[in-house]
Specification:
Low-confidence stretches: none
Structural class: alpha/beta
Number of helices: 14
CATH topology of the largest domain: Aspartate Aminotransferase, domain 2
Order of helices and strands: HHEHEHEEHEHEEHHHEHEHEEHEHH
Strand order of the largest sheet: 1-7-6-5-4-2-3
Shape: globular
Oligomer: single chain
Helix content: 25-40%
Length: 394
C-alpha cells in the first residue's frame, strides 16, 4: 500500500495517477492531442491510439478515477449513457435477463426497454426498497442495475443485500452513483461489481464537459473497454483534460454541495409554498436511515413538489433570478429542471405519478453559491408562484 492509497479523497482527486515530476516539468498535466503514437518496431508493449482510450490523458484520469472509487481499473467514455451502454453489453448476450431498479434514469430505462429487446435481452424492473424484490430474478438473470441516489426522487439503496443476492445467482451488479459522486458513496465497498457515473455532472463539475465513467475490477472494466473500442464512444483528449481539471476540486465542491443541500432542504420543508421535499438528509425521507448508513454526505440534489401542481411549478421556475432552468446537474451553479419535460418526458403523466413524480415536481441541483442567496431566490419565486398569472396581470 502506498501513501496515496492511505490518503483522503481530496488528495487522491488532485494527485492520483501522476508520475514523478522533475525540475521544469509542468505542474498541470499537458493536453496531448495526437491521435496516434510511435510504436515499438518489435511489437512490444501496447498499441497507443486515441480511439482505444489509452492515450496519456486517458491513462492518468482513469487511474485517478479508480483511486477515488477504490477500484482496480476505470474507463472514461463519451457520456454517462455511453458508459452504461458499454457496461450492459459487456455483460449480457442474447437470451439473458436483466433486473433493474424501477427508480431509474430515463435514458437507462430507454436502453433497457427499447434497445435491448431488439437483441433478445429482457428486463424486469423491481422496487429494491419493497419486500419481494427478489422475485424479479430468473435463472437467466445475468445483470442487476441499481441507481442510488435515484433520479429524481433521491431514493437511496443499500447495495449489500442486492449484491449478495445477485452474486449467489452468478449475476454482475452495476450501480449508477452519479448523484453521490465518489466522495459521498463508493458502491464497490458494498459488494457492487461496477460503478457508473455521468462524469458530466459532479466529477466534471463545471457544466463544460460531457463524459462517462465505469470503474471496477480489472477484468470487468477490461470487457467494457473492449466494447468501447468496437462501438467507438471514446472521450476526446480535450474533454479528458477538462475532466481532470474538474476532478481536482471534487471533494471541496462536494463539501459545499452537501452543506447547501441540507440547509435548503430544511428550509424548504417548512415553506408553505412547497407541498413536499425529497432529500435523504431529512428524517422525513423514506430512506433516511439507509442514507445515514451508506452515504458520507447527503448531496446537493433536492426534489421539491411546488404547491399548485404543474401550473405552480411553471410560475416558480419562471420567477427565479439566480438559479437557472437547465437539464443537467452537479455543476457549480444551481440548476433546476422539471422531470415531466426532461428525464421522464417519455412517461405518461399517469405513469410518472405512479412513480412518485407528479406534475409540480422540480428537481434542484444546488451549486456552490451561498445558501442564504439561494434561499432568498427560491423564496421570492415561490411567493410569485402562489399568485395565479391572471391575478398577477390584474
Amino acid at each position: 500500500m502506498t501513501d496515496l492509497d492511505r490518503s483522503g479523497p481530496s488528495t487522491r482527486a488532485v494527485h492520483a495517477g501522476e508520475g514523478p515530476r522533475g525540475v521544469h516539468d509542468p505542474v498541470v498535466n499537458p493536453l496531448v492531442l495526437s491521435t496516434t503514437f510511435i510504436s515499438d518496431p518489435d511489437g512490444q508493449g501496447p498499441l497507443l491510439y486515441q480511439r482505444y482510450g489509452n492515450a496519456p490523458n486517458h491513462v492518468l484520469v482513469e487511474a485517478r478515477l479508480a483511486a477515488l472509487e477504490g477500484a482496480e481499473d476505470a474507463v472514461v467514455l463519451g457520456s454517462g449513457m455511453a458508459a452504461m451502454a458499454c457496461a450492459v453489453i459487456s455483460v449480457v448476450s442474447a437470451g439473458d435477463h436483466v433486473v433493474a431498479t424501477d427508480a431509474i434514469y430515463g435514458g437507462t430505462r430507454a436502453l433497457l426497454e427499447k434497445e435491448l429487446p431488439r437483441f433478445g435481452v429482457e428486463t424486469t424492473f423491481v422496487d429494491f426498497s419493497a419486500p419481494g424484490w427478489r422475485d424479479g430474478f430468473r435463472d437467466d438473470t445475468k445483470l442487476v442495475i441499481g441507481e442510488s441516489p435515484s433520479n429524481p426522487l433521491l431514493r437511496v439503496l443499500d447495495p449489500r443485500p442486492i449484491a449478495d443476492e445477485a452474486h449467489a445467482r452468478g449475476a454482475v451488479v452495476v450501480f449508477d452513483s452519479t448523484f453521490a459522486s465518489p466522495v459521498n458513496a463508493r458502491p464497490l465497498e458494498h459488494g457492487v461489481d461496477l460503478v457508473m457515473h455521468s462524469a458530466t455532472k459532479y466529477l466534471g463539475g463545471h457544466s463544460d464537459v460531457t463524459a462517462g465513467v465505469i470503474a471496477g475490477s480489472r477484468a470487468l472494466v477490461g470487457a467494457v473497454r473492449d466494447r468501447a473500442k468496437v462501438w467507438g464512444p471514446t472521450l476526446d483528449p480535450h474533454a479528458v483534460w477538462l475532466l481532470e481539471r474538474g476532478m481536482k476540486t471534487l471533494a471541496v465542491r462536494m463539501e459545499r454541495h452537501n452543506r447547501n443541500g441540507m440547509a435548503v432542504a430544511a428550509w424548504a420543508e417548512r415553506h408553505p409554498g412547497i407541498a413536499r421535499v425529497h432529500y435523504p438528509g431529512l428524517a422525513s425521507h423514506p430512506d433516511h436511515a439507509v442514507a445515514e448508513r451508506v452515504l458520507d454526505g447527503f448531496g446537493g440534489m433536492i426534489g421539491i413538489e411546488v404547491a399548485g401542481g404543474g401550473e405552480g411549478a411553471a410560475r416558480f421556475v419562471r420567477a427565479l433570478k439566480l438559479a437557472k432552468l437547465a437539464p443537467s446537474l452537479g455543476g457549480v451553479e444551481t440548476l433546476l429542471s422539471e422531470p415531466r419535460y426532461t428525464s421522464h418526458a417519455g412517461m405518461s403523466p399517469e405513469r410518472r405519478a405512479a412513480n412518485g413524480i407528479r406534475d409540480g415536481f422540480v428537481r434542484v441541483s444546488l451549486g456552490i453559491e451561498d445558501a442564504d442567496d439561494l434561499i432568498a431566490d427560491f423564496d421570492q419565486a415561490l411567493r410569485a408562484a402562489a399568485v395565479p398569472e391572471a391575478a398577477a396581470a390584474d
